[in-house]
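Progress against Task 2.4 (sequence-to-structure conversion) is shown through the following example record, which the project officer requested during the mid-term review.
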Amino acid sequence: MHKFILILATIAAMTASLNAAAQQGQTSELPDPMELAAKMADQLERELELDAGQVFKVDTLFQHIYREYYAEVEKMAKAGVQNTSGQYLRVSDKWGEYSDKVLETILSEEQWAKYLKGNGGKNKKAREKRMAKDRY
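Structure tokens generated for the chain above:
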């Protein structure tokens, strides 16, 4: 579960580094979204005891999410959106919500319950609270 927190922290750090890199015209220093997706799929495979089909679906899900997330953040950075505006967190929350919806369909009821008992559930609750109150 600690690695899951680390991955989420990495995503937050990516937002800041992507903004800075885009302003400088450099994006090669950012973590590879495919690599991040594989790490996330491996982590969930170990924690939730995913079968091979689930690992494939989770990896594919995170590849899509990270590519789209990077594209949105890069677009905002190029448009000059400040990192402190809350729009970056809103984008992260949007993709986190999407991730949870799709993960729930991939995981068994027992796996989903285990996911929600951990940091995935804590992050989901915090995100839902921010989104409900539009706290950005």
